[in-house]
Amino acid sequence: MKNNYSSLPDCQLFAGLEETNLDSLLNCLEAVPRKFAKGEVVFTAGGRFDKVGVVISGNLHIIREDFWGNRTILARIGEGNVFGESFSCAKINRLPVSSICAEATEVLLINYARVITTCSSACAFHAQLISNMLRILAQKNIALVQKIEHLTQRTTREKLLSYLSAQALEAGGDIFEIPFNRQELADYLAVERSAMSAELSKMRADNILLYHRGRFELLRKDS
Amino acid sequence: MKNNYSSLPDCQLFAGLEETNLDSLLNCLEAVPRKFAKGEVVFTAGGRFDKVGVVISGNLHIIREDFWGNRTILARIGEGNVFGESFSCAKINRLPVSSICAEATEVLLINYARVITTCSSACAFHAQLISNMLRILAQKNIALVQKIEHLTQRTTREKLLSYLSAQALEAGGDIFEIPFNRQELADYLAVERSAMSAELSKMRADNILLYHRGRFELLRKDS
DNA sequence: GATAGTCTGTTGGATTTCCAACAAAGGAGA
DNA sequence: TCTCCTTTGTTGGAAATCCAACAGACTATC
After folding, report:
1. A116 at the B interface (CB within 8 A)?
2. Distance D27 C1' – B181 CA (angstroms)
3. Which long-range contacts (CB under 8 A, 24 or more apart) does B87-90 make?
4. Hey, which residues does B75 pair with through a beta bridge?
5. Which residue gives the smallest C-alpha to C1' distance to C21?
């Protein structure tokens, strides 16, 4: 059954691959497009999932259920995003999470074994695909480590300094803009929004930084 | 220059590879063993690092320097462990961290490009190597996500419940042992040890769990 | 079983965060 | 400009955490 994948959204996993090659590659990967209704389960906690999923349209939630059965949404996976790859790559035998469609959702299920098994010369794009997969995992990794560094700080002030310092270093200058509003920043750092606002005020009073909305300037010791 | 790698410690990166094949593989990867003295720098923040490092003997520290120049040790990499792989895989152009030897240390530097570029049939072990690399990144990823879940909880009690619940689920039973002592657990959850001990006592009083040292039992609502 | 050293639990006061409610500032549309 | 709505900042009391100091439990060694 031939499918038209030209509608594949931008997707890190297929970055650098020509659209013209995509069809043969997807064939080689045993990629299967599937449609799910809202509330349907793509993979279930406790089972195995030896595939890599790509959301073509719609949204799905990664859900964890704790010891007492309380559910929490760990992530929302949108168009073009990959899911399940960590569990497939890590060869986990009992999935710790489920994925459930938040709305009508179309996904592409790819056989993970085919991703890492470079086939004959017919499919020279495996190398690119593997490189993409490594990059996806590695980038996520780096972002997670950085977030943990911030979260590990004990006080709100330290968390803010850790985050803002990292942003300044990344921007390569003392003045920079952050991609969060206050509520989002508070959620990211796992602190209370109003308390965080208050702390920012104190830090300004202490000549540590200047800010207006999303624009910040860190001050060096002697300025 | 032929080197004897028979002394390579157990290493996830080379898992599943026969020792007899190792020499030719390492050759193919342009692996270079290097010795560093205590305090020497293996890779420097700000630069590029397109290699993967494996610690053969000794220890090195991954170090981050913040906006004001304060240094913190992010990780200690010991024998058999891989380092730098996230930055190479993510193709970061300016390293955010440095690595400095904590003692006299011997490392194996591998050309990352050679890891992902499957060569001719002469080296059939690339597939295993790539699979190993993916597994290393993915496992780290899963562990980091789980840690973030715990750290994101606001109160000490919630952090403990999040951690212990995950341990119980992993163990597949209500009774389980944790791999940390109290101080280590407190550090992992980024809370104060004595406050955490106190909270554990309260939770026991509230009939949420039982414990003795590293052995815990979670109690279901109606027991 | 005596001893020393480490790990765990307890306590109270200082500090910090949370929470709720409200005030002020900024932005979009009429 | 005026109005409505969202975002950000401020405040004070309640709750939780941190911190330091100490007591009790456990372990290894002699």
Report:
1. yes
2. 14
3. B87/A138, B87/A142, B87/B49, B88/A138, B88/B49, B88/B50, B88/B51, B88/B52, B88/B112, B89/A134, B89/A135, B89/A137, B89/A138, B89/B133, B89/B137, B90/A135, B90/A138, B90/A139, B90/A141, B90/A142
4. B62
5. A194
What residues contact A125, with CB distance under 8 A and at least 6 apart?
A17, A21, A25
Cα–Cα distance for residue pair B186/A110, rounded to 1 Å: 40
Q: Yes or no: say if B90 and A135 are a contact pair by the CB < 8 Å rule.
A: yes
Outline where A29-125 has alpha helix (H).
Answer: 85-90, 112-116
DSSP string, A138-154: HHHHHHHHHHHHHHHSS
Q: So what's the pLDDT on residue B21?
A: 76
pTM over 0.90: yes
Instruction: Give tens-digit pLDDT for B113-163.
Output: 988 887 665 466 788 899 999 999 999 999 999 999 999 999 999 999 999
Asked if B169 CB < 7 A from strand D, the reply is no
Query: pLDDT for B93-103, tens place per residue?
Result: 999 999 999 99
C-alpha distances (whole Å) from A99 to each of A47, A56, A96 are 12, 15, 10
- In the sheet that holds B98-101, the strands lie side by side as B41-43, B98-101, B60-65, B71-77
Nucleotide nearest to B192 (CA to C1'): D18
Q: What is the widest separation between alpha-carbon atoms in chain B?
A: 69
Question: What are the structural domains of chain B?
Answer: 12-142 (2.60.120.10), 153-218 (1.10.10.10)
The neighbouring-strand residues paired with B36 are B105
Q: How far is CA B172 from CA A94, B164, B187, B188, in A?
A: 11, 12, 25, 22
Element (H, E) at B211: strand B209-212
E strand or H helix that includes residue B197: helix B193-205
The Cα of A90 is separated from the nearest Cα of chain B by a number of Å equal to: 4
Contact predicate B33/B108, CB 8 Å: yes
* Pairing status of strand A82-83 against strand B82-83: unpaired
pLDDT for B23: 82
Would you state the torsion angle of the CA atoms of residues B9, B14, B15, B19, taken in this order, to the nearest 10 degrees?
Answer: -70
Tell me the C-alpha distance between A82 and A75, whole Å.
12
CB atoms within 10 A of CB B76: 11
* CB atoms inside a 10 Å sphere around CB B18: 10
Using DSSP, how many helices (H) and how many strands (E) does chain B show? 7, 11
- pLDDT at residue number B69: 85
Q: A221 beta carbon < 7 A from strand D?
A: no
Distance from the Cα of B135 to chain A's closest Cα (Å) equals: 4
